[in-house]
Prior knowledge:
The protein has 5 helices and 2 strands; from the N terminus they run ααββααα. The chain is mostly helical. 19% of the residues are buried.
Amino acid sequence: xxxxxxxxxxxxxxxxxxxxxxxxxxxxxxxxxxxxxxxxxxxxxxxxxxxxxxxxxxxxxxxxxxxxxxxxxxxxxxxxxxxxxxxxxxxxxxxxxxxxxxxxxxxxxxxxxxxxxxxxxx
Length: 122
């Protein structure tokens, strides 16, 4: 299920939502002089980290790993990014949206149990 095209599309949407939430958080909580840097820089940095640190031959990705890491570290990285975006939504007082987003992330990982097991074993 973790490599099913619909699930991969949902994962893409979740990742984009996380990046947008992190950018909006940077805009809202950045000082006036630093606001644009945070609103653009945090999502770019997060996307770079997300794309660079990968598990070699991950069937849910291209299989390429610019900086190879093991599966457990990858899961931790994904967890941290999603939790930061959920926390950011909550911190910006989008409480219901943060709960909905968190629920969809959990559901996605439940459906992707085969990928989770593969990452834990890798």
